[in-house]
Amino acid sequence: MALQKEEHAVLTVDGEIDYVLERKKIKNINLRVKPDCSVYVSAPQRAAVREIEGFIKAKSKYIKRAKEYYRSCPKIKPVELEYVSGETIKLLGTEIELKVVRGSREFSERKGSVLYLHLKDTEDIKRRKRLFTAWLDGVCREVFTDIMRDVHGRFSEYNLSFPELKLRTMTSRWGSCHPYKKIITLNRRLIEAPRHCIEQVVTHEFCHFVHPDHSKDFYALLQRMYPEWRYSKAVLESTVVL
Questions:
Q1: Containing H/E element for 14?
Q2: Which of 15, 36, 168, 170 has the most CB atoms at less than 10 Å from its CB?
Q3: 8 Å CB contact between 75 and 65
Q4: Secondary structure class of 98 (helix, strand, coil)
Q5: In degrees, to the nearest 5, what angle opens at C-alpha 161 toward C-alphas 156 and 166?
Q6: Which domain does 52 fall in, by range?
Q7: Domain annotation covers residue 77
Q8: Which string of DSSP letters, residue by residue, matches 117-168?
């Protein structure tokens, strides 16, 4: 069944707010202001429009501040890689240059700020992409798992099992979790951001193992476990454009 997306507008004390509404199989209404200043709302299938708009009105000052923040930030456009020499990627907030090298065997290696892709056929874009993606997945697993171990230690009072890590490339979410399956899924694009930004996302997902919703108790726990979460979230959303 296709997800329903609708465009709406609601009048608030902070002016009219245009928003995109997407209905999902979820329990709570969620709201996100994207770096392009668009407002995205996901809501349960049966939530009344008046309930959704009441939620948006209650968040109008947050929406206004978020839009002002994004308008003040330099615009960063996502770049489609061709995996050729001279291109740069972001890794934990720093730039890494790609160099494609012809060789008798295929492997990748990083030396300082340069990632070398050794290929038999340097003109084959599919093989360049495959080699790069395999390297990136390895880095993501190493870095994300290390951060998950650090964060997991902070939740010792809750006796949480260490979750399984899954990687995905997502266009609208940094991460998700399945509390009962003990799985945390993280967006590969997170590896572009500074470590503290990834830590914020991981802490957010771990909090869902204690509070599966976005209740006041959830945010109180997030605040206790990671007091700087708002700052790290803002840095993440201004650094990496999904």
A1: none
A2: 170
A3: no
A4: strand
A5: 120
A6: 4-72
A7: no
A8: EEES-TT-HHHHHHHHHHHHHHHHHHHHHHHHHHHHHHTGGGTPPPPEEEEE
